[in-house]
Amino acid sequence: MTSTQNRVRRRNGPLPTFHVRGPILGFLARRPLLRFLARRILVAILLAWGITLVTFVLTNLVPGDPVAANLGQRAVGDPVAVAQWRAEHGLDKSLPQQYLLFLEGLLHGDLGTSQQSHRPVSEDLAEFVPATLELAGAAILVSLVLGVAFGLIAALRRDRLADHVLRMLSLIGVSVPTFWLALLAFYVFFYRLQLTPGSGRVDPAIGAPPPVTGLHTVDAALAGRWDIFTSALGHLIVPALVLSLYTIGLLTRFTRSAVLEVLGQDYVRAGRAKGLSGRVILFRYVLRSALVPIITVAGLAFGSLLSGTVLVEAIFAWQGVGQYAYKSATALDLPAIMGVGLVVSGVYLAINLLVDVLYGVIDPRVRLR
Amino acid sequence: MTLTITGLRVAIRDTQILSGIELALHKGQVHGLAGESGSGKTMTGFAVLGLLPHGARASGRIELAGRDLLGLPDKELNRVRGNDIAMVFQDPSTSLHPMLTVGRQLTEHMRPHLGLGKAEARERALELLTKVRIPNPAEAYRRYPHQFSGGMRQRIAVAVALACDPQVLIADEPTTALDVTVQAGILRLLRGLCDELGLAVLLITHDLGVMSAIADEVSVLRDGLVVESGARKSVLRTPTHPYTRSLLEDLP
Ligand SMILES: Nc1ncnc2c1ncn2[C@@H]1O[C@H](COP(=O)(O)OP(=O)(O)O)[C@@H](O)[C@H]1O
Ligand SMILES: [Mg+2]
């Protein structure tokens, strides 16, 4: 790697400023965007390590005795069985040692064994995480598309009928509690109208598609099984909409105010003075600037959307992480709780990283000094 | 005669803002438009380019090469904007888009107006940057507005305005937001470009000192009406209107 770069360098002559910094730093110095990304990713890795530490400590602070929770009545009274169980789970070692063991396992993808399902936690997560990702991902997609579109329309039709209607809808969206909406939607669409299938992710009579990504809709499409796809989509639509209503409302409001703010900027008037078409002004001049506040709100909103999945999963019997987390927590299943904690914080971390990176990609003032 | 404004009246909702402006701009001449803040200078400029705020109604005539701009549908007006008539705004730190490169902002209107391809547009942009005396144009082309000083930004804004070879340039207080040290440079640049390219320049300012430095003709605006107009020397030396006299007395 280094020798090829040196060869290239020799052929092209020396690069005086960058030569002394070594190949990697020199390479980054010439590419501000990459340098910006590298710095953000480095920070994310540090945060991820912090998360493992916090997860570990919190889990060990939980009051309650995992032995009592996981060994049968009789075994708890038997000191030999208890000691054996503790040794098996590394509980006889000091906390720092336990943490190192935990980290080592983590690096190998080993999150321990769930005391409930008696399966590796990683296997449990591999089953439940995609289900939640499918639900939350669909909700995020719907809220982004509809929220930004509604907000844009409301801003462009300011004080006209469309604006009033959309503002009213967004107010409803942010005021209605998700659990109530979920129950209502379940009752109306499934029970009353029988428009949509009720619970679960797919019609059991058809069965799940061959797993590739774990997302039923995607896997069904990949396998060309359109009967499964239709069924999976039918199951997905109502819970995803229920989950996204709040974020749609929020994004509509923020997009509207962000677009209105940008529309009043000097550079938009300057763009019009140049004779640019309305389309260019809207997408290149207005939407691009408005995206910065929109992304900020979207990042925050998706956090709240994730916590909403616990309720929606319960009501629609969606076998996802929310349900798994609830069961593990009530059973004091420590490895499972840690696993869920890590996955959820990982998702938050990824969303934050994405938001940060998008700032830099959209706004040169963030990535260039 | 390049641009003639006759009987221009503008009202926003119930407020009369301009009440019958008369102005004539000529090729190769700088026409100064003076008047205190709120007298309607900016609105006059906006009216010419059809950039008046929402809810504004304009009447009268703004004639460019035999056509009345006030009656033009938006699509045709867009062919005039930036192409026949261009504008330089007051504050270059807000009038250039912060997220688009200088190159992009210099070239994006060349395609619709001049039909230039990417390489030709870039070449022309580099020439323009040289013309407004931006050092190292190829480097500047790739940069963003925030990486330049205020004076340099205004030079870039002037280059953007000149990109499609307009006949008329409206400069709305182009030095007000700048450091005193760079103001004279921008004014000299505008004067030079006016002579070199045969532009008809409308130089809007509330500062008669700026005016006396470079204008050929001067009009004085008060409450939406031109109260005095004529050659610079006669207006500044022997003003007939008491309002002009009071403005001149306020000069240091
Ligand atoms: N959007 C607007 N709505 C209503 N009145 C406005 C608006 N913009 C400017 N005006 C009024 O128009 C008058 C002329 O403003 P302007 O042309 O900006 O003055 P200046 O000579 O300082 O450039 C002012 O009295 C101002 O209050
Ligand atoms: Mg003004």
Protein described:
The complex is a heterodimer of chains A (369) and B (252). With 369 residues, chain A is mainly alpha-helical. Chain A has a domain at 128-334: MetI-like (MetI-like fold), CATH 1.10.3720. Chain A has helices spanning 2-12, 16-19, 22-29, 32-61, 66-70, 73-76, 79-88, 95-107, 121-156, 161-175, 178-192, 216-223, 226-263, 266-273, 278-315, 321-330, 334-362, 364-367. With 252 residues, chain B is of the alpha/beta class. Chain B folds into two domains: 1-84 and 168-174 and 199-252, Rossmann fold (3-Layer(aba) Sandwich), CATH 3.40.50; 91-165, no CATH class. Helices cover 41% and strands 25% of the residues of chain B. Chain B contains twelve helices and ten strands. Chain B has helices at residues 41-49, 74-80, 92-95, 102-107, 110-114, 118-131, 137-142, 150-162, 180-197, 208-214, 232-237, 242-249, and strands at residues 3-12, 15-25, 30-34, 56-64, 67-68, 85-88, 168-172, 200-204, 217-222, 225-231. In chain B, the strands form two sheets. A six-stranded mixed sheet of chain B has the order 6-7-8-3-9-10, sandwiched between helices. In chain B, strands 2-1-4-5 form a four-stranded antiparallel sheet, covered by helices on one side. In chain B, helix 6 packs across helix 8 (150-162) and helix 8 runs parallel beside helix 9. The longest helix of chain B has 18 residues, at 180-197. Chain B is globular. The model of chain B has no long low-confidence stretch (mean pLDDT 94). The complex binds adenosine-5'-diphosphate and magnesium ion. Magnesium ion is lined by residues 41-42, 173 of chain B.
Main-sheet strand order of chain B equals: 6-7-8-3-9-10
CATH architecture of the largest domain in chain B, please?
3-Layer(aba) Sandwich
Helix and strand composition category of chain A: mainly alpha
Query: What shape does the CA trace of chain B take?
Result: globular
The CATH class name of the largest domain in chain B reads Alpha Beta
Assigned CATH class of the domain at 128-334 in chain A? Mainly Alpha
Order of helices and strands of chain A: HHHHHHHHHHHHHHHHHH
CATH architectural designation of the domain at 128-334 in chain A:
Orthogonal Bundle
State the end-to-end distance of chain A: 30 Å
How many domains in all of chain B? Answer: 2
Rounded mean pLDDT of chain B is 94
Give unreliable regions of chain A as ranges. 1-20
Domain ABC transporter (chain B): 3-248
Membrane topology (chain B): Peripheral membrane protein
GO molecular function (chain B): ATP binding; ATP hydrolysis activity
Keywords (chain B): ATP-binding, Cell membrane, Membrane, Nucleotide-binding, Transport
